[in-house]
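Notebook entry, structure prediction.
Reason for the run: the old model in the group folder had no record of what sequence produced it. Starting over properly, with the input documented here first.
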Amino acid sequence: MKHFFSLNIDFVGFFTSSLCALHCAALPILLGFGVISTEWMDHLLVEIIFLSLSLVFAVQSLHKSYKNVHNDIRPMSIAGVGFAIFIIGLQFHGPVEIVCTTCAGILIASAHVINWRIVRSKRTELCCA
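New structure, fully documented this time:
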């Protein structure tokens, strides 16, 4: 697992998606307890930035790996479901939005980890074959 954290596009995608999930889960709690009171963090533009970064990294990483390495649709499917849930969550406010966007970030981050594992296993197969 330590090789996952070397600088690669799956790690960057995992990191941004995890950061997004953390933002979505922690923001309401911190606002509720008065720890932070900045409205800019709950702004639609911030969510669009997280979504855009995650989408760029997912397309870059997952599509490239699918096309050039493994032809396994699972990582792209999981990320696609995550992005769909994220977009659905943006239509709501309150607990539904929080649950949807947090779950979406976790799914997208998971897609990067799964993609990384598949790529690693395929490269191991090629090296040892």
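Summary: The chain is about 80% helix and 0% strand.
The old model has been moved to the deprecated folder.
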